[in-house]
Every structure is written in C-alpha cells, then in structure tokens.
Write a structure and sequence with these properties.
Helix content is 23%, strand content 28%. By secondary structure, it is of the alpha+beta class. It folds into two domains: 51 residues; 117 residues, no CATH class. The strands form four sheets. The chain has a four-stranded antiparallel beta sheet with strand order 1-2-5-4. The longest helix is centred in the first third of the chain and has 34 residues. The protein is elongated.
Length: 230
C-alpha cells in the first residue's frame, strides 16, 4: 500500500455510494448506509465552510488599510481605544505660575478599551433569547470583575459542533464584550454611559448622561442569563 501523495483525493459522495462485501454477523447494511450518508453531508458542509472562510480571508487581506493613510482617531479605534478632545482652557502648564494652556492646544484623553471573549463549549441548548435581549447592553452589576456599566455585550458567534453518533446538536458559543473604564475623581470607574463634560460637577468631569425620560445610551442587563440553558 502506497503512502505517497499520489493517492486520488477523497470524494465525499463515494462514502455514501460505496458498496461493501456482505459477511455473516456484520453490521446492518441500512444503518451503515444511513450513517455514511450523514457523514457525507457533514464533510460537504465542512468543506463549504472552509472554502467560504478562505475566501473571506483573501478578501480581508486585500482591504488592509495603509497605516500612513489613517488619521489618529482611526488608529485609536484600531488599537481598541477612544480619544476625547478637551479644550486647552481647562488645563494649566505644571510650571511656575501655572500659566493656562494655549487655546489652540486641545489635549486628547485616551480611553483604552479592552476586548473580552468568553468561550462556552459543548452547549446542548444555548440561551438564544437572552443573547438577543442582552446584545448592546452593559452589565448591571459586577461581571468578570468589571464594575457595573463598564462591560458592553457586543454579540455572539455560535458554531454547531460535529457529532458522528449523536443526533442532538452541541454548540460552541463565543461571547464578545468590550470593556471601558474611566477613573472617577471620587474613586471607582465610570463606563459606557459616562461622557466628558467641560464644566466639572464637584470636581468630576466624567458624568453619566440620559435622555429626557431618564434612559441612558446603553441599557443595563443581567449577563448571568447568557450562561443558563434555554
């Protein structure tokens, strides 16, 4: 038997149509055929997925921007950060007599943003409804050590795990979050609903905002629901 690379490529359709010699006390031919058919379909699906991912990768490689063409704000976003421009009149130079910063100088405050991924393996019944309801919300209480309001749920990537002998689907669930913490003058951290205000309130420039009905830009939710079976 040759192990060289000259062997013909495997054809998934051959698995479902191939005939075998019959033998006493062997496996039931019908059950074998059904199983091989399922195996063939799964191999075709995986190959199609691989081809799609390769095409996406090639497309992404052609759209990588030239770093020199990016403005500072775009670079900050690419690095997972946000820049807030502040008026120069708010600041003073840390030298004798503390003269005010020139009006045409607008110091930028860099707000780093952390990206968090949680992977849940072999999930028999993912909480689909909770995922939809919590997408775009912030944590209502401390979650993964992140203070309330600082962790934003971006979404989920769900992948069905291949099972040869079990008809019940198991899933790989990847949850994606973005964390943003803004140190407050009085201690603690502000989050996604805190915005910079030129006029400080009791020494604090990072203040929470809301609309006329009291609704913040990002509603809060209970992220523990993301890890409960539906």
């Amino acid at each position: 038997m040759s192990l060289s690379g000259d062997a013909p490529p495997f054809d998934p359709d051959d698995a479902a149509s191939r005939e075998f010699s019959k033998a006493r006390k062997g496996f039931d031919p019908t059950e074998v055929r059904v199983h091989l058919t399922k195996l063939t379909e799964e191999i075709k699906r995986l190959r199609a997925t691989e081809a799609e991912l390769r095409a996406q990768l090639e497309d992404a490689a052609t759209r990588v921007p030239d770093v020199e063409s990016l403005d500072p704000a775009a670079i900050s976003r690419a690095l997972g950060a946000e820049t807030v421009r502040t008026p120069g009149r708010l600041w003073r130079y840390a030298i004798d007599d503390a003269p005010p910063v020139d009006d045409d100088v607008n110091p930028g405050l860099l707000i780093p943003t952390g990206n968090v991924q949680l992977t849940w393996l072999r999930v028999p019944s993912p909480p689909w409804n909770a995922q939809r309801l919590l997408r775009g919300k912030v944590n209502g209480s401390t979650f993964l050590g992140a203070p309330a309001g600082t962790l934003l749920f971006l979404g989920v990537r769900a992948v069905r795990e291949f099972q040869l002998l079990d008809d019940d689907a198991l899933w790989r669930i990847d949850y994606h979050f973005a964390e943003q913490t803004k140190p407050l003058a009085g201690g603690g951290f502000g989050g996604w609903n805190h915005f910079y205000r030129e006029e400080a309130d009791d020494g604090e420039h990072w203040l929470p905002i809301a609309d006329a009905d009291g609704n913040p830009p990002y509603a809060a939710g209970d992220f523990s629901a993301l890890f409960q079976f539906e």
